[in-house]
Amino acid sequence: MKFPVLVEVKLREGIADPQGATIERALPALGFAGVEGVRVGKAIRFMVEAPDETAARALVTKLCERFLTNPVIEDADITVG
Amino acid sequence: MASRVGVVLFPGSNCEHDVVAAIEGLGGTAELVWHGDRSLHGVDVVVLPGGFAHGDYLRPGAIARFSPVMAAVTDHAAAGGVVIGICNGFQVLAEAGLLPGALQKNRGLKFLCRTVELRVETARSALTTEVPVGTILHVPINHFEGNYTCSPETLAELRADERVVFRYVDNPNGSIDDIAGICSTGRNVVGLMPHPERACDELTGSADGRPLLRSLLTAGLATRPG
Question: In CATH, what number is assigned to the domain containing residue B41?
Fold first, then answer.
């Protein structure tokens, strides 16, 4: 079976996010008030072939650990299906 | 006999010829090693140069660590051979797990291209055997992702083992503990963001990189098997 996958890569808590901070600082000047906690990450979409959803998730988890994230600074949220 | 230095050429490297010229200027011999090679052709020292290996796609160094040559580089390091990563090369070594920690975007999101002051923090590394601790060197930096970070445990280890090789005198990028370069437990793998190969002639502003590269050539001979 083929499963659609969405991997959202985000900086781990406590890791400074200069892109998020820059966006947040720029918002008031653009007329957007009341926005806080901006964090910038990456979204990666792909299809994966696996016998079932559990197997698909296990494969994607391994892929994230080895390649799609740097575990020193990043985490990933994985959505399968 | 002079040390033989292999400078790895990834698609997107752009400092490899500077390293070759600097090494040859010091009496060493240098050759380029293609990233797709599985062998290091018997070189004594491996340099991973600056640039944008594989376009820095995903993260700097993330794809380069899977280049075929990296298995040979890892074996060379494990056998005590000298491996140096400069700038993008440091990022590759960190991604490959040959050095701990990671390099993030600079504080303030600024691309930095200027000469900085570096303090040599240990003479026990392949790059600093000929430079006394406390020496201040003027060496250029040229990076967007040079903001070194690591876990508190790793930082404590680096400090306790004196594996911080260089610190910035005036931290330009937000690196934890002002770190500009570190080495492995065996002290044969060194990564640094500044470019010593660009500081090899007074004509171009500084010759402070020369003692570092001389140390490298000496270390290369000292670790030659047999």
Answer: 3.40.50.880
Instruction: Give me the CATH code for the A2-80 domain, please.
Output: 3.30.1280.10
Interface of B with A in 139-178 (CB under 8 A): 149-151, 174
Q: Which residues have CB under 8 Å from B129's CB, separation 6+?
A: B123, B215, B218, B219
Q: B226 pLDDT exceeds 70?
A: no
User: Would you call A18 and B149 a contact, using CB atoms and an 8 Å cutoff?
Assistant: no
pLDDT in tens, B186-209: 999 999 999 999 999 999 899 999
For B:43-62, CB contacts with A below 8 A are 58-59, 62
Domain of B148 in residue numbering reads as 4-222
User: Domain-by-domain residue ranges, chain A?
Assistant: 2-80
Shortest CA distance to A41 belongs to which of B64, B105, B173, B108? B105
